[in-house]
Amino acid sequence: MTLYHTCTQRILLYITGKTPILLTSLLHYLALEFQPSFLPTDIHILTTSNSMDCEWDLILAPNDQKGHFHIFCQEYFPEGLPLFPDNIHTMDYDEPTLDRADFITALVHQLTSQKNSVIHLCLAGCDEAVSFHSGFALSLYGRKQDQLSRLMVIQTLQIESCPGMAKVNLTDIPFIRMGREIPGSLKKGRGIFSEHLSMIQRLSEPVTVEINVATRQVRLNSIIIPMDKADLSVYLWLCLRRLNNEPPLLSDAAPFVEEYIKVYAVIVGPLSGMLDRVRTVACKRTPKQQRNWLQQRISRLKSAIVRKLGGQAAQPFLVHPVKYRGKTAYQTRFDKSAINLSGMADE
User: Fold this and answer.
1) Is 128 left (phi over 0), alpha (psi -120 to 50) or beta?
2) Would you list the domain boundaries of the chain?
3) Residue 317 near residue 224 (C-beta atoms within 8 A)
4) Quick check: pTM over 0.70?
């Protein structure tokens, strides 16, 4: 397990409303009371634009003006703990909630993408929507070493050198790490909340499998799944077998090659020069080679679907192995009413 204090990058993401001055109290707690201590190498602050003028001059004043954040850093972080202007992220409080959710999710995605890093996301004085979207973003992208907490003020302290200091406590917030279930396409994307929301909504609908033969496009619950011609042919073949109430597919069935070539011709066209080459290669396979070929195609289909939908959401659309006549065969599990074929030559 990756322990957070062994990471070379320890990032504090402080999400706040109108309580920026509590940043010093939080750092004091993390340095002296948190076990084991968390000394951040980077600080990121996320706040709303209409709170930027609320005590931020005390935090951001340069050293020669004795800003109280810098006073604190000189005492507890003598080697320096720079808070760069680029690390202060602002949202417009009046913009639509979904836009703010996109902003938060994108920032968390960016920070958790950094290697050998740990994120401590602390919520302080922000509204319920911001708190929810922050926690949701960390659930999407958080790793096992990342942490989520809420800052609670216990008592305001009167310290002349550091006005606004308070005795605080951090409440740990457990969260579910969903990283393994996030589709690869979203992991590599921009980390946009609305994209996640749209995909979750589509995947929560009844299963639909749409195959447009003319455009060679597969849509699973309206989500496009890229497939090459051979993989698409196998998936179409299994859908056709489901529509025709045929039994599971055995790789050593006598008409296997001719049935596959027939479906492959639907995809590439009956006059394609590929047909003779594919038939020649298929006919030369031994039963074992044919079984391995089919297993490879099923595996490739699974990878393509999981990459776009995520492991759990992909399950209803996958091709599954079953026992049929004492042998391993393959079939889809969705109902034939879920299948919609278009672009066929006889339409």
Assistant:
1) alpha
2) 4-198, 206-342
3) no
4) no
